[in-house]
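Pipeline run #58 for the internal structure catalog. This entry was flagged by the ingest filter as a single-chain record with no existing model, so it goes straight to prediction. Upstream metadata was stripped on purpose; only the residue string is passed forward. Reviewer on rotation: M.T. Logging verbosity set to normal.
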Amino acid sequence: MNTITKKFIKYVSFNVLGMVGMSIYILSDTFFMSYALHSDGITALNFALPVYSLIFALSLMVGIGGATVYKLISTNKEQEKANKIYTLTIFLGISIGIIFMLLGIFFSREITVLFGAKDYIIPMTQEYIKTIMIFAPAFMLNSIYQAFIRNDNNPKLPMLAMIIGSTSNIILDLIFIFILKMGMFGAAISTCIAPIISLIILSRHFIKKKNTFHFSRKFLSIKDAFNICKLGISSFITEISSGIVMLVFNIIILKINGVIGVAAYGIITNISLVALIIFSGIGQGIQPLASTAKSENNKTDLSRILKLGIFTTITFSIIIYIASLLFIDGIISVFNSEKSVELYNIAKEGIRIFFAGFIFASINIVLSSFYSAVDSPKKAFIISVLRGFLLIIPLAYIMAKILGMTGIWLSFVLTELIVTIISIIIGKKKPAKKSLLQN
Protein backbone atom coordinates (compact mmCIF):
# COMPACT_ATOMS: atom_id res chain seq x y z
CA MET A 1 0.00 0.00 0.00
CA ASN A 2 1.58 3.30 -1.11
CA THR A 3 1.71 6.53 0.89
CA ILE A 4 -1.18 8.31 -0.84
CA THR A 5 -3.48 5.30 -0.34
CA LYS A 6 -2.68 5.26 3.37
CA LYS A 7 -3.36 8.99 3.62
CA PHE A 8 -6.61 8.53 1.68
CA ILE A 9 -7.83 5.84 4.08
CA LYS A 10 -6.87 8.00 7.07
CA TYR A 11 -8.50 11.25 5.92
CA VAL A 12 -11.60 9.75 4.35
CA SER A 13 -12.34 7.27 7.15
CA PHE A 14 -12.00 9.93 9.85
CA ASN A 15 -14.13 12.38 7.91
CA VAL A 16 -16.86 9.89 6.99
CA LEU A 17 -17.13 8.71 10.60
CA GLY A 18 -17.40 12.30 11.75
CA MET A 19 -19.96 13.24 9.11
CA VAL A 20 -22.10 10.22 9.92
CA GLY A 21 -22.00 11.28 13.54
CA MET A 22 -23.02 14.80 12.57
CA SER A 23 -25.99 13.52 10.56
CA ILE A 24 -27.40 12.31 13.85
CA TYR A 25 -28.11 15.99 14.61
CA ILE A 26 -31.22 15.79 12.47
CA LEU A 27 -31.96 12.05 12.54
CA SER A 28 -32.31 12.01 16.30
CA ASP A 29 -34.67 14.99 16.15
CA THR A 30 -36.82 13.17 13.58
CA PHE A 31 -36.84 9.95 15.58
CA PHE A 32 -37.79 11.62 18.86
CA MET A 33 -40.31 13.94 17.17
CA SER A 34 -42.06 10.93 15.64
CA TYR A 35 -42.73 9.62 19.15
CA ALA A 36 -43.34 12.91 20.94
CA LEU A 37 -45.40 14.79 18.31
CA HIS A 38 -46.08 12.00 15.76
CA SER A 39 -46.56 12.84 12.05
CA ASP A 40 -47.21 16.54 12.80
CA GLY A 41 -43.78 16.79 14.42
CA ILE A 42 -42.06 15.15 11.44
CA THR A 43 -43.94 17.43 9.04
CA ALA A 44 -42.99 20.58 11.00
CA LEU A 45 -39.37 19.47 11.16
CA ASN A 46 -39.35 18.78 7.42
CA PHE A 47 -40.49 22.33 6.69
CA ALA A 48 -37.75 23.66 8.99
CA LEU A 49 -34.89 21.56 7.59
CA PRO A 50 -34.31 23.74 4.48
CA VAL A 51 -33.30 26.60 6.80
CA TYR A 52 -30.84 24.33 8.56
CA SER A 53 -29.55 23.19 5.15
CA LEU A 54 -29.04 26.81 4.10
CA ILE A 55 -27.01 27.65 7.20
CA PHE A 56 -24.97 24.47 6.92
CA ALA A 57 -24.43 25.04 3.18
CA LEU A 58 -23.08 28.55 3.76
CA SER A 59 -20.84 27.27 6.54
CA LEU A 60 -19.42 24.67 4.14
CA MET A 61 -18.95 27.23 1.38
CA VAL A 62 -16.94 29.52 3.64
CA GLY A 63 -15.21 26.74 5.58
CA ILE A 64 -14.28 24.39 2.73
CA GLY A 65 -13.55 27.29 0.39
CA GLY A 66 -11.35 29.06 2.93
CA ALA A 67 -9.55 25.88 3.97
CA THR A 68 -8.91 24.92 0.32
CA VAL A 69 -7.42 28.33 -0.53
CA TYR A 70 -5.40 28.17 2.70
CA LYS A 71 -4.02 24.72 1.82
CA LEU A 72 -3.15 25.67 -1.76
CA ILE A 73 -1.28 28.75 -0.56
CA SER A 74 0.39 27.34 2.57
CA THR A 75 1.73 24.34 0.62
CA ASN A 76 3.63 26.89 -1.48
CA LYS A 77 5.24 28.28 1.73
CA GLU A 78 3.28 31.56 1.71
CA GLN A 79 2.21 31.38 5.36
CA GLU A 80 1.59 35.10 5.86
CA LYS A 81 -0.89 35.19 2.98
CA ALA A 82 -2.40 31.92 4.18
CA ASN A 83 -3.01 33.46 7.63
CA LYS A 84 -4.89 36.33 5.98
CA ILE A 85 -7.15 33.78 4.30
CA TYR A 86 -7.81 32.09 7.65
CA THR A 87 -8.69 35.40 9.31
CA LEU A 88 -10.94 36.46 6.45
CA THR A 89 -12.73 33.10 6.55
CA ILE A 90 -13.50 33.51 10.27
CA PHE A 91 -14.72 37.07 9.63
CA LEU A 92 -17.03 35.93 6.83
CA GLY A 93 -18.41 33.07 8.93
CA ILE A 94 -19.20 35.25 11.94
CA SER A 95 -20.76 37.95 9.74
CA ILE A 96 -23.08 35.48 7.99
CA GLY A 97 -23.96 33.92 11.34
CA ILE A 98 -24.96 37.27 12.83
CA ILE A 99 -27.18 38.04 9.82
CA PHE A 100 -29.02 34.74 10.32
CA MET A 101 -29.32 35.41 14.03
CA LEU A 102 -30.98 38.78 13.46
CA LEU A 103 -33.31 37.37 10.79
CA GLY A 104 -34.31 34.59 13.16
CA ILE A 105 -35.08 36.99 16.00
CA PHE A 106 -37.19 39.40 13.98
CA PHE A 107 -38.55 37.49 10.95
CA SER A 108 -38.86 33.82 11.93
CA ARG A 109 -42.61 33.64 11.26
CA GLU A 110 -42.30 35.18 7.81
CA ILE A 111 -39.48 32.75 6.99
CA THR A 112 -41.59 29.82 8.26
CA VAL A 113 -44.47 30.73 5.95
CA LEU A 114 -42.05 31.34 3.07
CA PHE A 115 -40.75 27.78 3.41
CA GLY A 116 -44.22 26.30 3.01
CA ALA A 117 -45.58 25.65 6.52
CA LYS A 118 -49.33 26.16 6.87
CA ASP A 119 -52.06 26.40 9.51
CA TYR A 120 -51.42 24.56 12.79
CA ILE A 121 -47.94 23.42 11.64
CA ILE A 122 -46.64 27.01 11.65
CA PRO A 123 -45.99 27.44 15.43
CA MET A 124 -43.97 24.22 15.71
CA THR A 125 -41.96 24.95 12.56
CA GLN A 126 -41.32 28.55 13.61
CA GLU A 127 -40.03 27.46 17.00
CA TYR A 128 -37.43 25.18 15.40
CA ILE A 129 -36.41 27.69 12.71
CA LYS A 130 -36.01 30.60 15.15
CA THR A 131 -33.83 28.60 17.53
CA ILE A 132 -31.60 27.24 14.74
CA MET A 133 -31.11 30.72 13.24
CA ILE A 134 -30.19 32.30 16.56
CA PHE A 135 -27.38 29.76 16.95
CA ALA A 136 -26.17 30.20 13.35
CA PRO A 137 -22.76 31.65 14.39
CA ALA A 138 -21.97 28.42 16.26
CA PHE A 139 -22.84 26.28 13.22
CA MET A 140 -20.71 28.51 10.99
CA LEU A 141 -17.62 28.45 13.21
CA ASN A 142 -17.93 24.72 13.80
CA SER A 143 -17.78 23.92 10.07
CA ILE A 144 -14.96 26.41 9.47
CA TYR A 145 -12.72 25.10 12.21
CA GLN A 146 -13.37 21.49 11.25
CA ALA A 147 -12.23 22.26 7.70
CA PHE A 148 -9.13 24.21 8.77
CA ILE A 149 -8.00 21.70 11.38
CA ARG A 150 -8.49 18.86 8.88
CA ASN A 151 -6.25 20.78 6.46
CA ASP A 152 -3.77 21.37 9.29
CA ASN A 153 -2.82 17.66 9.24
CA ASN A 154 -5.20 16.70 12.05
CA PRO A 155 -8.21 14.85 10.55
CA LYS A 156 -8.80 12.84 13.73
CA LEU A 157 -9.84 15.77 15.95
CA PRO A 158 -12.71 17.00 13.71
CA MET A 159 -14.00 13.41 13.63
CA LEU A 160 -13.99 13.22 17.44
CA ALA A 161 -15.61 16.64 17.69
CA MET A 162 -18.44 15.68 15.34
CA ILE A 163 -19.08 12.33 17.05
CA ILE A 164 -19.03 13.77 20.58
CA GLY A 165 -21.24 16.68 19.50
CA SER A 166 -23.73 14.30 17.90
CA THR A 167 -23.78 12.00 20.92
CA SER A 168 -24.53 14.96 23.15
CA ASN A 169 -27.39 15.86 20.79
CA ILE A 170 -29.03 12.47 21.36
CA ILE A 171 -28.65 12.71 25.13
CA LEU A 172 -30.01 16.26 25.18
CA ASP A 173 -32.94 15.22 22.95
CA LEU A 174 -33.92 12.60 25.52
CA ILE A 175 -33.67 15.10 28.36
CA PHE A 176 -35.36 18.09 26.68
CA ILE A 177 -38.10 16.28 24.72
CA PHE A 178 -39.14 13.45 27.05
CA ILE A 179 -38.02 14.37 30.56
CA LEU A 180 -38.54 18.14 30.45
CA LYS A 181 -41.37 17.96 27.86
CA MET A 182 -39.97 20.86 25.81
CA GLY A 183 -41.32 19.59 22.48
CA MET A 184 -40.04 21.15 19.27
CA PHE A 185 -37.95 23.74 21.13
CA GLY A 186 -36.23 20.91 22.99
CA ALA A 187 -35.30 19.24 19.70
CA ALA A 188 -33.99 22.51 18.31
CA ILE A 189 -31.96 23.57 21.34
CA SER A 190 -30.29 20.15 21.65
CA THR A 191 -29.24 20.43 18.00
CA CYS A 192 -27.86 23.92 18.65
CA ILE A 193 -25.83 22.95 21.71
CA ALA A 194 -24.08 20.16 19.76
CA PRO A 195 -21.84 22.47 17.62
CA ILE A 196 -20.84 24.41 20.76
CA ILE A 197 -19.65 21.17 22.36
CA SER A 198 -17.88 20.33 19.09
CA LEU A 199 -16.07 23.69 19.15
CA ILE A 200 -14.88 23.02 22.70
CA ILE A 201 -13.39 19.72 21.49
CA LEU A 202 -11.76 21.45 18.51
CA SER A 203 -10.10 24.00 20.81
CA ARG A 204 -7.70 21.20 21.81
CA HIS A 205 -5.87 21.86 18.53
CA PHE A 206 -4.98 25.34 19.79
CA ILE A 207 -4.42 24.45 23.44
CA LYS A 208 -1.77 21.92 22.37
CA LYS A 209 -0.38 24.54 19.95
CA LYS A 210 -0.62 22.25 16.94
CA ASN A 211 -2.09 24.94 14.71
CA THR A 212 -0.01 26.49 11.94
CA PHE A 213 -2.65 29.12 11.09
CA HIS A 214 -2.90 32.38 13.03
CA PHE A 215 -4.91 35.60 12.94
CA SER A 216 -3.67 38.45 10.78
CA ARG A 217 -4.46 42.14 11.23
CA LYS A 218 -4.67 43.00 7.54
CA PHE A 219 -7.09 40.49 6.11
CA LEU A 220 -9.95 42.32 4.37
CA SER A 221 -9.79 41.64 0.64
CA ILE A 222 -12.69 41.42 -1.80
CA LYS A 223 -10.52 39.39 -4.18
CA ASP A 224 -9.64 36.82 -1.49
CA ALA A 225 -13.26 36.65 -0.35
CA PHE A 226 -14.26 35.92 -3.94
CA ASN A 227 -11.65 33.13 -4.18
CA ILE A 228 -12.92 31.59 -0.94
CA CYS A 229 -16.51 31.59 -2.17
CA LYS A 230 -15.45 30.42 -5.64
CA LEU A 231 -13.78 27.27 -4.35
CA GLY A 232 -16.50 26.71 -1.76
CA ILE A 233 -19.50 27.27 -4.02
CA SER A 234 -19.77 23.63 -5.09
CA SER A 235 -19.91 22.54 -1.42
CA PHE A 236 -22.59 25.18 -0.88
CA ILE A 237 -24.71 24.03 -3.81
CA THR A 238 -24.23 20.35 -2.95
CA GLU A 239 -25.60 20.96 0.54
CA ILE A 240 -28.22 23.59 -0.32
CA SER A 241 -29.58 21.38 -3.09
CA SER A 242 -30.85 19.05 -0.37
CA GLY A 243 -32.76 21.93 1.16
CA ILE A 244 -34.07 23.16 -2.19
CA VAL A 245 -35.19 19.70 -3.27
CA MET A 246 -36.82 19.28 0.14
CA LEU A 247 -38.65 22.59 -0.20
CA VAL A 248 -39.88 21.87 -3.76
CA PHE A 249 -40.87 18.29 -2.94
CA ASN A 250 -42.71 19.45 0.20
CA ILE A 251 -44.83 21.86 -1.84
CA ILE A 252 -45.59 19.30 -4.58
CA ILE A 253 -46.29 16.43 -2.17
CA LEU A 254 -48.52 18.61 0.01
CA LYS A 255 -50.80 19.09 -3.01
CA ILE A 256 -50.80 15.38 -3.93
CA ASN A 257 -50.95 13.60 -0.57
CA GLY A 258 -51.29 16.32 2.06
CA VAL A 259 -49.56 16.29 5.46
CA ILE A 260 -49.22 12.49 5.54
CA GLY A 261 -47.32 12.59 2.25
CA VAL A 262 -44.93 15.23 3.58
CA ALA A 263 -44.44 13.14 6.74
CA ALA A 264 -43.56 10.10 4.57
CA TYR A 265 -41.12 12.20 2.57
CA GLY A 266 -39.73 13.43 5.89
CA ILE A 267 -38.69 9.86 6.68
CA ILE A 268 -37.05 9.44 3.27
CA THR A 269 -35.25 12.76 3.30
CA ASN A 270 -33.86 12.30 6.79
CA ILE A 271 -32.46 8.87 5.94
CA SER A 272 -31.14 10.16 2.62
CA LEU A 273 -29.32 12.95 4.48
CA VAL A 274 -27.18 10.27 6.11
CA ALA A 275 -26.26 8.79 2.72
CA LEU A 276 -25.57 12.16 1.11
CA ILE A 277 -23.50 13.29 4.07
CA ILE A 278 -21.34 10.16 3.73
CA PHE A 279 -20.68 11.06 0.10
CA SER A 280 -19.90 14.65 1.13
CA GLY A 281 -17.63 13.24 3.82
CA ILE A 282 -15.64 11.33 1.21
CA GLY A 283 -15.42 14.48 -0.92
CA GLN A 284 -14.27 16.60 1.99
CA GLY A 285 -11.85 13.88 3.07
CA ILE A 286 -10.00 13.90 -0.25
CA GLN A 287 -9.87 17.72 -0.40
CA PRO A 288 -6.66 18.28 1.63
CA LEU A 289 -4.90 15.48 -0.28
CA ALA A 290 -6.04 16.70 -3.70
CA SER A 291 -5.16 20.34 -2.90
CA THR A 292 -1.67 19.32 -1.78
CA ALA A 293 -1.11 17.17 -4.87
CA LYS A 294 -2.34 20.03 -7.06
CA SER A 295 0.04 22.52 -5.44
CA GLU A 296 2.93 20.08 -5.93
CA ASN A 297 1.76 19.33 -9.51
CA ASN A 298 1.77 15.61 -8.68
CA LYS A 299 -0.47 14.20 -11.43
CA THR A 300 0.09 10.60 -10.34
CA ASP A 301 -1.28 11.26 -6.86
CA LEU A 302 -4.15 13.32 -8.25
CA SER A 303 -5.23 10.48 -10.51
CA ARG A 304 -5.02 7.91 -7.71
CA ILE A 305 -6.93 10.14 -5.26
CA LEU A 306 -9.77 10.60 -7.75
CA LYS A 307 -9.97 6.87 -8.57
CA LEU A 308 -9.98 5.94 -4.88
CA GLY A 309 -12.66 8.55 -4.19
CA ILE A 310 -14.96 7.30 -6.97
CA PHE A 311 -14.48 3.64 -6.05
CA THR A 312 -15.14 4.30 -2.35
CA THR A 313 -18.25 6.39 -2.86
CA ILE A 314 -19.81 3.93 -5.36
CA THR A 315 -19.16 1.09 -2.93
CA PHE A 316 -20.87 3.00 -0.13
CA SER A 317 -23.84 3.91 -2.33
CA ILE A 318 -24.43 0.28 -3.33
CA ILE A 319 -24.19 -0.92 0.28
CA ILE A 320 -26.63 1.77 1.44
CA TYR A 321 -29.14 0.94 -1.29
CA ILE A 322 -29.05 -2.81 -0.65
CA ALA A 323 -29.32 -2.27 3.12
CA SER A 324 -32.31 0.04 2.65
CA LEU A 325 -34.13 -2.63 0.63
CA LEU A 326 -33.33 -5.40 3.10
CA PHE A 327 -34.43 -3.42 6.16
CA ILE A 328 -37.11 -1.24 4.58
CA ASP A 329 -39.91 -2.28 6.95
CA GLY A 330 -37.82 -1.71 10.05
CA ILE A 331 -36.57 1.67 8.82
CA ILE A 332 -40.09 2.97 8.24
CA SER A 333 -41.48 1.56 11.49
CA VAL A 334 -38.87 3.44 13.52
CA PHE A 335 -40.39 6.74 12.38
CA ASN A 336 -44.01 5.57 12.02
CA SER A 337 -45.06 5.53 15.68
CA GLU A 338 -48.75 5.90 14.72
CA LYS A 339 -48.58 2.75 12.53
CA SER A 340 -50.11 4.63 9.60
CA VAL A 341 -50.64 2.31 6.62
CA GLU A 342 -50.80 5.22 4.17
CA LEU A 343 -47.53 6.69 5.45
CA TYR A 344 -45.92 3.25 5.26
CA ASN A 345 -46.98 2.65 1.63
CA ILE A 346 -45.79 6.08 0.45
CA ALA A 347 -42.46 5.81 2.24
CA LYS A 348 -41.83 2.25 1.02
CA GLU A 349 -42.27 3.16 -2.64
CA GLY A 350 -40.15 6.27 -2.11
CA ILE A 351 -37.23 4.42 -0.56
CA ARG A 352 -37.18 1.79 -3.34
CA ILE A 353 -37.05 4.37 -6.13
CA PHE A 354 -35.43 7.46 -4.59
CA PHE A 355 -32.47 5.63 -3.04
CA ALA A 356 -31.46 4.15 -6.41
CA GLY A 357 -30.27 7.65 -7.31
CA PHE A 358 -27.55 7.46 -4.64
CA ILE A 359 -25.24 5.56 -7.00
CA PHE A 360 -25.14 8.52 -9.40
CA ALA A 361 -25.37 11.19 -6.69
CA SER A 362 -22.29 9.77 -4.96
CA ILE A 363 -20.20 10.15 -8.12
CA ASN A 364 -21.42 13.69 -8.72
CA ILE A 365 -20.70 14.84 -5.16
CA VAL A 366 -17.16 13.45 -5.09
CA LEU A 367 -16.31 14.82 -8.56
CA SER A 368 -17.61 18.24 -7.54
CA SER A 369 -15.49 18.23 -4.36
CA PHE A 370 -12.42 17.03 -6.26
CA TYR A 371 -12.65 19.77 -8.89
CA SER A 372 -12.95 22.46 -6.21
CA ALA A 373 -9.95 21.00 -4.37
CA VAL A 374 -7.76 21.18 -7.49
CA ASP A 375 -8.80 24.75 -8.32
CA SER A 376 -11.25 23.91 -11.13
CA PRO A 377 -14.30 25.75 -9.76
CA LYS A 378 -16.11 25.98 -13.12
CA LYS A 379 -16.37 22.20 -13.47
CA ALA A 380 -17.45 21.89 -9.84
CA PHE A 381 -20.03 24.64 -10.31
CA ILE A 382 -21.55 23.03 -13.42
CA ILE A 383 -22.01 19.70 -11.67
CA SER A 384 -23.41 21.25 -8.51
CA VAL A 385 -25.81 23.70 -10.13
CA LEU A 386 -27.23 21.11 -12.54
CA ARG A 387 -28.10 18.62 -9.80
CA GLY A 388 -29.10 21.27 -7.29
CA PHE A 389 -31.21 23.67 -9.35
CA LEU A 390 -31.48 23.45 -13.11
CA LEU A 391 -32.62 19.85 -13.57
CA ILE A 392 -34.25 18.60 -10.38
CA ILE A 393 -36.84 21.38 -10.01
CA PRO A 394 -38.42 21.26 -13.51
CA LEU A 395 -38.18 17.45 -13.62
CA ALA A 396 -39.97 17.17 -10.26
CA TYR A 397 -42.90 19.29 -11.44
CA ILE A 398 -43.16 17.61 -14.85
CA MET A 399 -42.88 14.03 -13.62
CA ALA A 400 -45.23 14.64 -10.68
CA LYS A 401 -47.95 15.71 -13.14
CA ILE A 402 -47.40 12.60 -15.24
CA LEU A 403 -46.78 9.92 -12.60
CA GLY A 404 -47.80 11.51 -9.29
CA MET A 405 -45.70 10.44 -6.28
CA THR A 406 -43.78 7.90 -8.37
CA GLY A 407 -42.72 10.71 -10.68
CA ILE A 408 -41.36 12.72 -7.75
CA TRP A 409 -39.11 9.87 -6.64
CA LEU A 410 -37.97 9.18 -10.21
CA SER A 411 -37.08 12.84 -10.84
CA PHE A 412 -34.21 12.56 -8.34
CA VAL A 413 -32.83 9.40 -9.97
CA LEU A 414 -33.08 10.81 -13.49
CA THR A 415 -31.45 14.11 -12.48
CA GLU A 416 -28.44 12.41 -10.91
CA LEU A 417 -28.05 10.05 -13.91
CA ILE A 418 -28.03 12.95 -16.40
CA VAL A 419 -25.54 14.92 -14.29
CA THR A 420 -23.22 11.89 -14.03
CA ILE A 421 -23.10 11.66 -17.83
CA ILE A 422 -22.36 15.39 -18.08
CA SER A 423 -19.72 15.09 -15.32
CA ILE A 424 -17.86 12.44 -17.29
CA ILE A 425 -17.95 14.59 -20.42
CA ILE A 426 -16.62 17.79 -18.77
CA GLY A 427 -14.05 15.75 -16.84
CA LYS A 428 -12.28 14.97 -20.09
CA LYS A 429 -11.77 18.66 -20.86
CA LYS A 430 -8.43 20.18 -19.92
CA PRO A 431 -8.54 22.63 -16.97
CA ALA A 432 -7.86 26.31 -17.47
CA LYS A 433 -4.16 27.24 -17.09
CA LYS A 434 -4.78 30.23 -14.85
CA SER A 435 -5.56 29.52 -11.21
CA LEU A 436 -5.86 31.51 -8.00
CA LEU A 437 -2.29 30.43 -7.18
CA GLN A 438 -1.15 32.60 -10.05
CA ASN A 439 -3.09 35.67 -8.93
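catalog note: The mean pLDDT is 88.
catalog note: The radius of gyration is 21 Å.
status: ready for reviewer M.T.
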